[in-house]
Design brief:
mainly alpha
């Protein structure tokens, strides 16, 4: 029977598909680490108190990249080049979502509106990351090789999502509410399109690696498109709501270190 659990297990059991999965994940996390580090360096003077949390966010993302690379190394695998059509972060940037890399490569301080844009973009993408890691935690949280890494990354993603909620609510109370809602909606609608396209691309690459028959590949593609149809109709709304999280000041401390994988 085709299920999310059996699909993940199939990818995990094959060295080539596992290497591709981890390479894609490591690349995206490392890119997120760089982006957050640059944003922290360019935070406007009035928001300098936010810089340590942004730095912590970036450090967590860097750590996740190292974890995925360590998981490959443990199996004697080397990273592979990430196919362009699976590069979630760069595809979002091309849609105009988040802060442009050209801006982050410069030395001009960001504006408060830029910080609001960054937080809104992060609130949407961290929703996706939190849900994906929750799914992996459900299936592999007790796995002898992956469990510790999955639990750590899942906890971090939940922290990142809580931080975005709390900071966006702070900015909303300061008078940025309408801008936040406009930005959240635009980000969410763009993200679900990119996520659909990336998911289709990843499944196509996995199918070639694992030799999936056409009927199986077609069923998976139909499932991805069905999820997009739901998200386009109503599911995107979960990405734009704001509520005060139970985890307050979730990024107020230092980043934890990546576990060692013997």
């Amino acid at each position: 029977m085709l299920s999310a659990r059996s699909l993940f297990q199939e990818i995990l059991d094959n060295d080539d598909s596992f290497r591709l999965f981890c390479s894609i994940a490591a690349s995206g996390e490392s890119q997120g680490g760089w982006e957050n580090a640059r944003i922290a360096a360019l935070v406007p003077a009035d928001e300098r108190a936010l810089a340590p949390k942004i730095t912590r966010h970036g450090a967590d993302e860097d750590k996740h990249g190292r974890i995925f690379n360590a998981l490959m190394k443990k199996r004697g695998l080397q990273p592979v080049d990430v196919p362009a059509d699976t590069d979630y972060t760069m595809l979002l940037e091309r849609q105009g979502i988040g802060l442009a890399h050209e801006k982050l490569k410069g030395d001009e301080p960001l504006t408060v509106r830029d910080i609001v844009t960054y937080l809104a973009h992060s609130r949407v993408t961290e929703q996706r990351a939190s849900e994906e890691m929750e799914l992996l935690r459900k299936y592999f949280g007790d796995h002898p090789d992956l469990g510790r890494a999955v639990r750590m990354i899942s906890n971090d993603e939940d922290n990142h999502l809580a931080y975005c909620h709390e900071e966006l609510l702070r900015f909303a109370a300061a008078g940025h509410g309408r801008a936040i809602q406009r930005t959240l909606r635009a980000c969410a609608l763009a993200e679900i399109r990119v996520y659909r396209d990336v998911s289709l691309a990843v499944m196509a690459h996995m199918g070639r690696v694992l030799g999936w028959p056409r009927p199986k590949a077609a069923v998976l593609a139909a499932g991805i498109r069905a999820v997009y149809a739901y998200e386009r109709a109503a599911g995107w709304r979960r990405m734009v709501s704001l509520r005060m999280p139970e985890r307050r000041n979730a990024l107020g401390g230092p980043a934890t270190t990546a576990p060692e994988f013997a």
